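Q: Start with the shorter request: fold the first protein.
A: Done. Sequence, then structure:
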Amino acid sequence: MDFHVNLTGRGDLSARIYRALLEAILDGRLRPGERLPPTRELAQRLQVSRTTVTDAYERLTADGFLVGRVGAGTFVTDQPVKPAARRAPRGQARPRRLWESVDGPSTDAVLPYDFQLGVPDGRLFPLETWRRLVAREWRGKSVHPARYADPAGHAGLRAAIARYVGVSRSVVAGAEDVLVTQGAQQALDVVGRVLLGPGDVVAVEEPGYSPARRLFQSLGAQVVGVPVDGEGLDVTAIPAAARLVYTTPSHQFPLGTPMSLARRTALLAWAARRDAVVIEDDYDSEFRFSDRPLQPLQSLDHSGRVVYVGSFSKIMLPLLRVGFLIAPPSLRSALRTAKQLADLQGDMVTQGALARFIEEGLLARHIRKATRAYAARHELITQTLREVDWLEVVASTAGLHVCARTSFDPTQVVARARASGVGVQALADFCAGEPQHGIVLGYGGIHVSQIPEGLRLLGAAR
C-alpha cells in the first residue's frame, strides 16, 4: 500500500524520511518482511531527489531495520521488532453527560462451562451451504457494486421475511412493510430515533433486556421499568406518559414466561387510549419445545400501534447481523429515512443469500434441527436444576435460556462458579431498580456433554 511520509519538522529531508520510516517500523505500521517503494518512486511522490531517499534507506539498512534483496527491492528486516504503543492524542473532547450513565459493553472471557445468554450453537449451522449461497450471490447479476441499494433492504429478502413470519407466526405484513436492519438492535435504534425526543418516557420490562434499556437511554429518553409477573408485563403499572413500550411477549427476557392473551389485549387497548407505540421483540420465538404459541401482538393489533422486531442472528450465527422490523404504514417512510441516515444500506450480498436460504426451505430445516438439539438441553438443564434445593426454576417452553430464582442474593455463588470455570449470570444484572434474586443460564452455545459437569460445579458453588 502507499505509505505516507510526513516531511514537516526539523533536520534535512533525508533525516525526516529516516525518522518517519523508523517510527512506522517501530510502531508496527510497517511489518517485518514488508516491501518498501523503490527509491525512485518514493522520491517522485515526495518531490525530492532520489539521493535524499537513498540516503535514508541506506541509514536504516546500516541500523538493521531494512534489507536489500537483489532484483526484488528493499524490505523491512524479518528480525522481529516489538511494536511501540501508538495512540491517538488524548485531546479535550468529551461526550455528552448522558453517556456517563450508559453502561458499556462487557468483554468477559469464554469459560470452560459457559452458559452465556443469547448465543446459538454455530456447530448446528450449515456453514458450507451458506458459503455456497454467498458465492452464488456474488456471481449473480443482482449485485450492483457501482451504486447504493434500497435502504429498506434486499427486495427478495423483504418478500421472504414477510412470507416467513406470516406462515410461522401469523404476522400480517407484505414485503413493503418490512425494513431489513443490522440485527434487532439497529431496529430498536431506528424506531427510537423516529419516535422519541429528549425526555420522552419509554416503558421497559423489569427485569428486562438491558441493551434495549441502554439504547433508549442513549437517545435521551426517560426509561421506566415496569414489573413483570406470571402473566407478563403488568399493564396497570405502565406510566401514563409513556410514548413507547418495549416488551418481549413470546418469551419474556430473562424470565422466560409468555405474556397471557388477556395481558396482550390489555396492552393494545392501553396503547390505543394513550396514543402510544408498542415494540414487540419476538426474539427466540422459533425455538419452541411445547405449548402452542399465542398470537403475536402484531396480529392482534387493529389500530397500527405495534412495531414487530425479529432477528436472524440468534437463529443462525451472531456474526450474521441481519434483523428486521415490520411497521404500520404510518411509520414506514420515516423509518426508511432513518435507516438510510444511519448506514445508507445493509449488506446486499448477505441479504440476498439469506433470501435464498429462506425460500429454498433451508432456514426451516435448520430451525427444526436446532430446536431438537435445544429441546434436549432445555430438558436436561431444567430437570437437573429442579434437584438443586436452593433453586426454583421459572417455567418456560421456548428460547435459549432458563431462569431460576433464589431466596438469597446469589452474587457470591455466581463469583465462585466463575472461579470454577462456570459462567452464569445473576438475575440482578437485568434489573435497573430493586435487584431480584436468581440466576440465568443460556444453553445455546454449550455442548450437551458439558452441561452435567457445569451444573454440578454450579451446585457446589453454594
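Q: Next, the second protein, separately.
A: Sequence, then structure:
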Amino acid sequence: MMKKLTLLALVGLWAVNAVWAQSGALTADQLKEIRQSYKEDSYTKAMENALSNNDINKLALNRDNVGKVDQNFKYKVDVSGITDQKSSGRCWMFTSLNILRPVAKKHFNIDKFEFSENYLYFYDIFEKANLFLNNVVATADLPFTDRKVNWYFKSPVDDGGVWNSFVNLVNKYGLVPKDVMPETNSSDNTRKMVKFIVTKLREDGLELRQMVADKKSKTDIENRRVGMLKDVYRMLALNLGNPPEQFRWRYEDKDGNLSEYKTYTPQQFRDDVLGDVKLSDYVMIMNDPTRPYYKHYEIENYRNTEEGINWNYVNLPNDVIKQFAIKSIKNNEPMYASCDVGAFYVKGSGVLSTENYDYGAVYGVKFGMDKKQRILTGESGSSHGMALIAVDVNDQGKPTKWQFENSWGPDSDYHGYLTFTDNWFNQYMFRFVINKKYLDKKTLKAWDEKAEMLPPWDPMF
C-alpha cells in the first residue's frame, strides 16, 4: 500500500513539474528566485506602507521642481477668457471656437463673446449618426468580424473630433452666439445621452445589414435610414434643444452702445463674423516620430459629415513646428493644439513638466520609453485639445516654456491656463493647426502632395 501511495505521489509531483516546465511558464525555481529578489529591508517596508496607503502622485511629486516654472511669457496673444466644456469630450470644438473668438470680439468691438458650442455639437452628433448608417450599408456584405465593420459598430458616434470636424460643421451649418443656443445639462454632461444614441444606432445598424441581406431595394433602405435619423434628431433635440434656422441678435459694444436687432441665419452670421478669415487657409501639422517627416497623411473615414473632408496632416519634426508656432504667437494668432495632457500633470499647479514626478524613484524601477515607443505601444497619444497662446524664450531666442488656454473653467490650474516646459512639448505635444502663411516652402510642398491613407485604428489616432 505504501509503495502505491509513494508511486502516486511521484506521479503527481511529476505532473506538477511538467506543468511548470511548459515553454514560457514560470518554473518553481524561477518563482523562488523572483520572490527572493524582493528584499524587505527597512526602506522597502516604509515605501510599501506609504504606497499602499497613499496616492502615488503624492509620493512621486518632485519637490525640487515645485516653483521652478513661472507663469510669465515674452510673447503672448491677446486672450479672450476661459471657457468650460464641463463633463464632455468636446475639447476640440471649444478650442477651435476659442481661436476664432478674438475675430468676433474685434468685429463687434465687444469685451466678451463666446460662440455656441451646443449648436455645433448637435449637428456633430447628428452628422456622425448619418455617416455611421451610410458606412453600415456600404459594408453590409462584409462579415461582422471584419475589422472595418467592427470598428464602425464599436463607436457609432462619440464626442471626439479634430480640426477637420470643426471645418466640416462650420462650412455646412455656420455659427451662432452662445446665448442663441446655450448649454444644457446634457451638453455639459454628454455621457448618458451619447450612450442611448449609440445603443439606438447599433440596433439600427443591425436592421440595415439585414435589409441588405434580404435584398431590399435601395429606396426602401434609404427611406428606413431617414426614419432612423428622425429618431436621432428627436433624441438630440430633447437633450440639447432644437437648433435655430434663423435668429435675432443684438449686442452692447465696449463703449456701451446697444446695437439694433439683426436677423441672421447661422450661415449669414458665420460670414459676417469671419469676414476674410478662410478656414481653408489653416492646415494641421503633427509630430509623429513613428512615421517619416515631411509627408502628407490622411485618416480614412475620420470625419463627421458624409461630404466633408477627412483628417489630413503633414508630419514634421518638433524643432520645425516650434519655429512656425513662435511666428504665429508673435503675430497675435493662437493655434489649435492637442497633447497628452495627463502626462506629469499636477492638478491645480498650472504646470506640465517631465520633472513633476519621479515614479521610478518610488518603485525603484526604470521607465525608459521614448515618444515613438510610447505611441506604438499605446502608452501615450493625444488626449486633449487646447489653444496654444504663449511662448517664453531665452537670450538666444530658443523656447523654454509654452502656455495653453484651456477649456476646464477659470478655476482650474492657473486661472484656467496650463504652462508646459519645452521638454514636455518634445515628449507630449502632437497636433497643431496653423495658418499656411507661417509655413515654409518645404512644408507647403508636402501638404500639396497626394496624401498617404492611414486606417482609423492606427495607434496614433
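Q: Describe the second briefly.
A: The chain has a mean pLDDT of 94. The longest strand covers residues 384-393.
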